[in-house]
Amino acid sequence: MLFYPEEKIGLFIDGANLHSTIKSLPYDIDYKKMLSFFRSKSRLIRTLYYTAVSDDPDYSALKPLLDWLDYNGYSLMTKPAKTFVDTNGVKSIKGNMDIELTVDALEMADHLDHVIIFSGDGDFCALVKALQRKGCRVTAISSTKTKPPMVADELRRQVDHFVELADLESEIGKVS
Fold this sequence. Notes:
Layout: E1 8-14, H1 15-23, H2 31-41, E2 43-53, H3 62-71, E3 75-80, E4 82-85, E5 91-94, H4 98-108, E6 114-118, H5 125-133, E7 137-142, H6 153-158, E8 161-164, H7 169-172
Parallel strand pairs: 1-2, 1-6, 2-3, 6-7, 7-8
Antiparallel strand pairs: 4-5
């Protein structure tokens, strides 16, 4: 990953997408190491973590992580998740944060040189194009090594740089 020491960067983390991706890799993220890694490479302006949160006790495992992130240099961007029950009685929880991430990235673009998006969601292609038109370099961090790959091909083609999440294990992975 190419950094310039004086460039201003912003990390935009699609929490649900990152969580799904990391579950398929052989390591977990050490969020403290991740912050240190990016701070050591350039001027980290903001680190935003986007996720929907549920009141459902089955999904409360996320709460300790969110509390830790909130107290340790991450800006949490949350909204309530919505619970749906289909006609077969199967419950699903949904909470997409793509619009919030997009609006924040566009609003901050004039104050950043490099936008790093932790997501492989192809829906972010329009955001990437808009950021590039504003003069920002854009990096996507996701994985092609998961089964299936978690990054959309069109996103990989649009960004200035794609980073394989599996290759960052030594920089941001938890030590067992």
